[in-house]
Amino acid sequence: MKEGRTGERMTAEINEQPEVLAALVETRAEIATVARSIAERSPRFALLVARGSSDHAALYAKYLIEILLGLPAGLASPSTTTLYDAHPDLRDVLVVTVSQSGSSPDLLEATVSAKAGGALTLAVTNTPSSPLHDVAEFSVQIRAGQELAVAATKTYSATLLALYLLVDAARGGSGEHVRDIGELARQALVESSEGVERAVERYRFADRLITTARGYSFATALEAALKLTETSYLTTRAYSGADLLHGPVAAVDTDTAVLAVTSEGRGGGAMWDVLDAVSGRGADVLTVGSAAASMPASLCIPLPETTEEIAPILEVLPVQRLALGLALARGFDPDRPRGLHKVTRTR
């Protein structure tokens, strides 16, 4: 196959997201059928199994499940099964395995073990022919299409939307808050482009960066740190806004860049004091989100306002563009990050 221009694949797949998200909403009825079947089994706990970007999507789902469904939820440690051969009693537990490829050996083994332990198993994947799809009792397809760039972009946002549609349907929702998500995503990409360009110029020579957020948006902060690290090799750490003030803030100074995800709602509102503190220590703060313009910051990238629980679907779009732009500005090809492959096989 003829090699494309540097960053061509990641660019194209970022730009596909409005159409991918709009098309996924059209499958809401199919996802709702799965949600009703799961709700009829009345699980008492949800356990989410994932790695990498999918683990950040799983954290988002944890917030959705606990807040919107009132059901306890936790993030699993696959190695308890794969390395330590633990077999916990998972009766009355919903185990949701999130995997774009559906073929990572550790996630597959953890799902098989959970099913043997009595769990109700659900696979959320972009690959309907995957082993994970065959193993789980139920499955939800994110339908993002083939993703060629190593860094996950459209598969990540589509996973978030699929998880939201599932949880929303489980609580009896109609999906009304994401009915126009495709148009909102298009708007977010267009309106954030100039802000992203300014941020690329501002941070292209940064040595270290902190990402931070609270609530639903913490998943975006984690995903931002991963994207910046894997594409532009910028040393990036993610912290909850609350945890940042519990110790790491001591290392913040005038050489520190902070990317804060701040959307309208309780999570974003809780970030004002955090950013006031880091700004007071001389940090250079970039805010991204629907509440970005109201926060103490050197630069902001505002986004369309939505209900708080779906904000992460839009927040990640300019973050992906920032990672792409910084990689190119620093002389790297984000389509071919060193040492990485599209499917990571761990155990």
From TrEMBL:
It is an enzyme of class 2 (transferase). Its EC number is 2.6.1.16. SUPFAM superfamilies: SIS domain. One of its GO terms (molecular function) is carbohydrate derivative binding. InterPro entries: GlmS/AgaS_SIS, GlmS/FrlB_SIS, SIS_dom, SIS_dom_sf. The keyword Cytoplasm does not apply. Pfam families: SIS (PF01380). GO terms for biological process: carbohydrate derivative metabolic process. Residues 34-176, 199-337 form the SIS domain. CDD domains: SIS_GlmS_GlmD_1, SIS_GlmS_GlmD_2. PROSITE patterns: SIS. Keywords: Aminotransferase, Repeat, Transferase. The keyword Transferase applies. This is Glucosamine--fructose-6-phosphate aminotransferase (Isomerizing).
